[in-house]
Amino acid sequence: MSVDLQTVKRVAHLARIAVSEEDAERMTGELNAILGFVEQLNEVDVSGIEPMTSVTPMDMKKRQDVVTDGGKAADIVANAPATEENFFLVPKVVE
Amino acid sequence: MSDLTQLTISQARAKLHGKEITATEITEAYLSAIDRANPALNAYVAVTGDKARDMAKASDARLVKGEGGALEGIPLGIKDLFGTEGVHTQACSHVLDGFKPRYESTVTSNLWADGAVMLGKLNMDEFAMGSSNETSYYGPVINPWRRSRLDTVVMPTTHQGDGGFVSAGGTRTARSLDNAQLVPGGSSGGSATAVSAFLCAGATATDTGGSIRQPAAFTGTVGIKPTYGRCSRWGIVAFASSLDQAGPIARDVRDAAILLKSMASVDPKDTTSVDMPVPDYEAAIGKPIKGMKVGIPREYRVEGMPEEIEALWQKGIAWLKDAGAEIVDISLPHTKYALPAYYIVAPAEASSNLARYDGVRYGLRVPGKDIVDMYEKTRAAGFGREVKRRIMIGTYVLSAGYYDAYYLQAQKVRNLIKRDFETVFAAGVDVILTPATPSAAFGIADEDMAADPVKMYLNDIFTVTVNMAGLPGIAVPAGLDAKGLPLGLQLIGRPFDEETLFQTAAIIEQAAGTFQPEKWW
């Protein structure tokens, strides 16, 4: 399978990365080189093989359903580019 | 002791606990070495001198009272991927501009609890995506090793006056260093360079497809990627969560064992952290390997591999045989599919992990006409080319209509890769010996690799299988090539059997010796 310019632009938008026409053209070539490389996986017979879900057989650890942390609003917003009274500020999303 | 930076961790530990030297002295020695070398090598992206001096002072107070921990007063470098409270943590990406976390990663917390001193944060490929440390926002790291050539020098006949000497002419050979700058490998290039150039006693690193072992091999240092789940991932910037593991890079096998003992722990904050006590890895060093079964996988003999790598591998086989190991030929038939499967699984996980960099919660924000425009502009400006490439691949293979063909297929192949290893271990193989990399260190801005991303990816051909199967792997220096550059061998072990890796790597180290670059910086 290979991608065309339109697909690259669509994927860039899904990934929320702005691309120029020139970027998209360059990426098309690079992505096709990588997709060409991974193509060889199709020759592997995987009939009856389960997809891997966990590399080490282990049961998901469960914690007690209790509050162990919190009250750190100031820490959480400390690194944000724009905040006001412990809220993250973003461009207006609702008219 | 003239230069304290030359001490290994085990030597420094003995001198610190024996009160022959102080933590302050050794820390100052490293800080001045960094000061002199960093402009040339670019290994550190942030040096935390004040913090290091404070930590060293506290270590000295504990050492005086005889209360020193396992790493008391040992100065370490920390890869920029580890969250360090109040200190530069950017995964060497522009998108995390100015980020100083309000928390400390579990691995670094463990090191500080054992008394280690932080010298600063180490350069790396952006988000650990790269094999040459050239994708860092902070510029490439330079390998302290340079190629050298043997020159035949004709000695002039000279006569000097009274009391002088007379040289009769003739020829001699001399090694002269080439000026070309080489990469230290990646993604933990800063860690490998800092350890190799004596800019820290040891360093933390991480390995998703070979990012500890390949730079260790390129710099003549020892690097171990432990079993998935041995070191907590909590507080480490995530790249591909099912593959990422932290581990140390050190100057010798014993130092790597000492560091891993401190880094590893059982952590309730990481659900994939395994519930098993951490053994005393150092105790495995020096144990004989008589009767141990060493597997040699035929699939690791790849087309176009330099003669020297094959010769190194044969040397490694001979050393282990001489030490009493039984050498057996094995087959890992799905080896060639590990790298293509990796380049689906790792970008898929990365595209999801890196979705969090949106210009809202931390780091860079580029304003836009609405929120989506802000996201897109922020991410376009914040991520470098390689990172964007991988996010794009990941987004594509996870997108509707392609998930089964790519992602599901890759995860099935991954199970087959794991099964290959399980089969040979079940047949009694204790450890597997392979080359660590298909070549020695290459030049900065290598044109072939810049033109074709897949060429760069091939660096990880021998290391990536280990991540796909979640196994432990260690790279240990085994010799120099004809140009005087270090080459490494890799040992792969059973899950959570890091002890056998240290035990066997120590045998290789004993036979091969340790390697130091000639100082030019």
Q: What is the structural class of chain B?
A: alpha/beta
Rg of chain A, nearest Å: 23 Å
Give the name of the CATH architecture of the domain at 5-40 in chain A: Orthogonal Bundle
Percent range for β-strand residues of chain A: under 5%
CATH topology of the domain at 5-40 in chain A: Histone, subunit A
What's the CATH class of the domain at 4-142 and 186-282 in chain B, please?
Alpha Beta
Overall 3D geometry of chain B? globular
Largest interface: A-B, 53 and 74 residues
Rg of chain B is 23 Å
Ranges of chain B where pLDDT stays below 50 over 5 or more residues in a row are 161-167
Compute the number of helices of chain B: 16
Structural class of chain A: mainly alpha
Q: What kind of sheet is the major sheet of chain B? A: 11 strands, mixed
Family (chain A): Belongs to the GatC family.
Enzyme class (chain A): ligase
Subunit structure (chain A): Heterotrimer of A, B and C subunits.
Catalytic activity (chain A): L-glutamyl-tRNA(Gln) + L-glutamine + ATP + H2O = L-glutaminyl-tRNA(Gln) + L-glutamate + ADP + phosphate + H(+); L-aspartyl-tRNA(Asn) + L-glutamine + ATP + H2O = L-asparaginyl-tRNA(Asn) + L-glutamate + ADP + phosphate + 2 H(+)
What does this structure look like?
The complex is a heterodimer of chains A (95) and B (521). Chain A is mainly α. Chain A contains 3 helices and 2 strands; from the N terminus they run αααββ. Chain A has a domain at 5-40: Orthogonal Bundle (Histone, subunit A). Chain A has helices at 5-14, 21-38, 73-77; strands at residues 83-84, 87-88. Chain B is α/β, with parallel strands linked by helices and 521 residues long. Chain B has a domain at 4-142 and 186-282: Amidase signature (AS) enzymes (Alpha-Beta Complex). Chain B is 36% helix and 16% strand. In chain B, a hairpin with a 6-residue loop joins β5 (157-159) and β6 (166-168). The two termini of chain B are 22 Å apart. Mean pLDDT of chain B is 95; it is low at 161-167. The chains are: A mainly alpha (95), B alpha/beta (521). At the A-B interface, α1, α2 and α3 of A face α9, α10, α11, α12 and α14 of B.
